[in-house]
Amino acid sequence: MSGTLAAAGPAVALREFHAFEAHGARFLYLVPSAGIFRLDEVAAAALDALASGPRARDQVVGELSARFGTARVPEITQTLDELTEVRAIGDIGSPVHQVANDLPPADFPLNTLVLNVTNKCNLACTYCYEYGEDKLVDTRYGAQPKFMSEDTAEQSVDMLLAESKGQKVAHLTFFGGETLLNFPVLDKTVAYARRRAAEEGKRIEFSLTTNATLLTPEIIRWLADNHIGVTISIDGPKPVQDGLRVFHNGRGTYDVVLPKIKELLATHRSRPIGARVTLTQKNLDVLQIFRHLTEEIGFWEVGLAPVTTQDHRDYALTDESKDAMLMQFEQLAHEWLDCALRDEHHGFSNVKDTLEEIHKGVSKAYGCGAGLGLLGVATDGGVALCHRFAGSEEHTIGSVEAGIDREKQGRFLVDHHIAAKTDCHTCWARPICSGGCYHEAQVRYGSSSRPNLHYCTWVRGWTHTCLEIYGALAEKNPKFLARFDA
Amino acid sequence: MRHLRAVNQKAARIEAYVAHETAQAAAAAPADPKDPDMLDVVGLRTPPHEEDGPHFPLGCSLVFAPGWEVDSQGGTAGLCQPVERDLFDCHLSCFWPAHVPDQLNHAPDWTGKCASAQKDWRSIDLVFP
């Protein structure tokens, strides 16, 4: 073998990518650049030849010219050049280009601030990460105030406007606890934020998450008039919802929230209303949940996320359940594709979010924007990595009064960078996943900087499905992809 | 590109970058092998930039290996570590194959049995080139 190589010039080998097919066409998802290229038959054959191991370049040319004819040798060598240029293949001796482990610039703007306006909730959902067995903060007997004050909320707005730097639009999200328990502060904060944003020549967009139990006609009117994006936490049809999302006395919430949600959907037309579902071992009929929420209730979009918990809880997903969940996600993703091919809307937001990242070719240094472009504020004004860490001393990086502790934030950005997650360094899905949610890692492994290894197979399966969907759209309805251009 | 078609936005940027680099390379004068700069051996400093002030090497010392001449801040305190610590300090970026196996290319699993360098270094696999 070495004699052959020496005689035929340097050997070339495959570099890092994930191959996928759609509608008979073959594609490459390059890692870590996240570029997607469609292969013609020569390029596909070249990669097939190299799949069995490194070869001298001349040998590859020889094998391919035997198949395509010697007249196409110039085409074959050009193909090998192009594959080399995009780093899908490379000389075996030449160094693999490493991605620079650059940290974000110091003036990185804050894009979204999530205010935990209260840490009280009128429900007692067993799986809740904030009050359940996996909680990080003692919300019942801890030192945190139950409600955020008007002053703290206003200071938060001031911080958001200042830290959004040159950005023209900033996002303010209200969260809880049950957000609407502190409606007076919401009302005043929105008015204050609008006034302050106008003074700064900026725009603020608002959104909130609620369990819908406290919606009233007045609040619904207020949400619509103020163009506030609303996400409803709801888990599905009555038996599912009433089994998991209950009042403190154990009574189910379905019959209480249904009429309120219907009124909200009928009245609030200025922003699409989404449902946010937590999937547990006890509610895994994804298709039934999705159809109920979209077709029977009328939500525009439904996003589904597996519960964050430790393995031994009875509502934790088993590996078999994750497989079943993935299969149903795939089915919904293909339904979504069928709609997209007809330029129609389909409310499965999980696929839409992933496709947008695939379309842009994001290659993430961090699993999410927490601690950087997104921050959470606890009821006492402490600035946390995100809303899920609000009130946790370990994950607090300043306060709205004193500002962001840049040293602590800097340490966080070093510790949580993909460069520090060596387990991820050989995974092809790392441009999209980058180790996953810090809060999930904190609950599972006791450290927010650990990669979420329990989801690797699932994430790769899901990303592969979304790549296939993306490839199918690129083949059959490429103009649809322009919707993700922004 | 004729045989690869850029599909997503990142691929379009890669294609534009490749086209730009190719044009730059075509415009540049061919390298003169007698040019003394071309013969300069450059180690531990990429690119050479004496005019930019002092250079802090990030690789190992050539003379006192294992160890560091200065740390990344330019300091000299606490440079040498016990060798078992150095194993994990160096193994991802080390240019010197005599130190540790090339984990990125040839020996991805050489530390597979060694969860903690200080405790388990005896169980590190032998790696033959």
Distance between the termini of chain B: 38 Å
Coarse morphology of chain B:
elongated
- Round the Cα radius of gyration of chain A to an integer and report it: 25 Å
Question: How many strand elements of chain B?
Answer: 1
- Poorly predicted runs of chain B: 39-69
Structural class of chain A: alpha/beta
Mean pLDDT of chain A: 93
Q: Based on DSSP secondary structure assignment, what is the total number of beta strands of chain A?
A: 16
Total helices of chain A: the number is: 16
SSE blueprint:
The complex is a heterodimer of chains A (486) and B (129).
Chain A lengths: L1 H6 L3 E4 L2 E6 L2 E6 L5 E4 L1 H11 L3 E2 H12 L4 H13 L3 E3 L20 E5 L33 H14 L5 E7 L7 H18 L2 E8 L6 H9 L3 E5 L4 H7 L9 H14 L6 E6 L6 H12 L3 E6 L12 H23 L7 H12 L13 E4 L4 E3 L11 E4 L3 E2 L1 H10 L14 H4 L4 H8 L10 H21 L10
Parallel strand pairs in A: 7-8, 7-13, 8-9, 9-10, 10-11, 11-12
Antiparallel strand pairs in A: 1-5, 1-6, 2-3, 3-4, 13-14, 14-15, 15-16
Chain B lengths: L3 E3 L2 H19 L8 H4 L43 H8 L26 H4 L9
